[in-house]
Every structure is written in C-alpha cells, then in structure tokens.
Amino acid sequence: MKKLRYYDTVIALFAAFLLISNLCATKVIAFGPILTDGGAILFPLTYIFGDILTEVYGFRYSRRAIWTGFSIMLIAVIVFTIVGAMPPAPEYHDQKAFEAVLGFFPRIVLASLTAYLFGEFMNSFILAKLKIKTKGKALWLRLISSTFVGELIDTTIFAFIAFGGIIMGWNMVIYILAGWLFKVGVEVILLPVTYPVIGWLKKRENVDYYDKKTKFTPFSVSLDR
Fold first, then answer.
1. Is 131 a domain residue?
2. Which domain holds residue 40?
3. Residue 93 within any structural domain of the chain
4. Which of its termini does the chain have fewer beta carbons within 10 Å around, N or C?
5. Is residue 216 domain-resident?
C-alpha cells in the first residue's frame, strides 16, 4: 500500500481516546438506578475510530492500531504504579488521593486491555468480513453489526474484571446493559459523522481496502498480507 497521509493522525487519536477514557473509568457514575463509569463518555469513540481504520485501511492497519493502543496503556499503568510506590515529598499531601484514583488504575487497565483486545479484534474482524460479503454496500449495517457484537464482548469482560466484587447482582446486569446500549447508541447517533469521515479518507488516501487475502491473526503487527 502506498504512503498514507492520515493514518498516523487517526491512530494517534485512537490511542489518546483510549488512554483518556480509561483514566475517566476510575469513577463510577450513577444516573438514578443506572450505573456506568466515566470512560463511557469517550470510549465509544474508540470503536468508531476502529471502524474507520478497518473500513478504509483494512484489518492489518486496524490490528497495528489496536496493539499500539495496548502498548500505550501498558506503559501508562507501569509508570503510574512506579510513581505511586515512590515516597512522597514532605510538601506533597495528596498521596492518598493519588493512590485512590491511580492506584485503582492498574485493575481498570487490566480489565480494559483484556476487554479491549477481545472487543476491538472482534469488531474489526466482523466489519472486514461483512465488507467482503456485502461487496462494500450497506455500510450502516456493517458498522452497527460489528459494534453490536464488539461492544457486548468488551463491556461484559470489562465489567467483571474491573468491578467484580464492587458492583454486585442486578446492579452488574444493569451496568453491562446500560454501558453496552449506550455505546451502540453512540455509534448509531454518530453515523451521519462517521459516513463523511470514511468517505473523505477514502478519497484523500485513494484507498478502499478489502481483506480478501488477509490472515486474520491478532498476534502480529505486520502490514504484510
């Protein structure tokens, strides 16, 4: 594939949104009986970026973006853990607040990275396969279908790893359903934005990739077919 002008920008935004959403996910939010976390505000957009990457550039380029985001999150949790363990200066009085928020971050990241890998790869795989099956038509159906499955897997895995033992019983069910439906809803609402972005990128990059000969292994960052 020829040199791409906007791939690096898309992958940078994808990774940034992932990092920010996971930091925000340390706060549980309640809207009456509905429980969610702060990451729900931004995290659904990472799936839209994943859709854009797969639809325009193909599974291989989306796979590299997924592993890039994974690496950044892993670096973040390592650094936060090291900094939290270091002795605070006498003038620093917020060690407990730091630990309360970012000390919980490793569990959030473990949950997020596990859920993220399964959810994102399934989302990208389904979208790529449906593109071939529909011969590039019915984009709305492909986007919603892939997100529908990917977000369900992502939200369920994340909920049990991040908040197992904290959110219990029916509240856990509500948490999963609310998060899943909200994220899918964001995908649907933003279709009028996603469509022109995909169309613009395809035109500017002169790329509309079909993964007809792609090896769909997640265990690679190679861009070779």
1. yes
2. 7-84+98-205
3. no
4. C
5. no
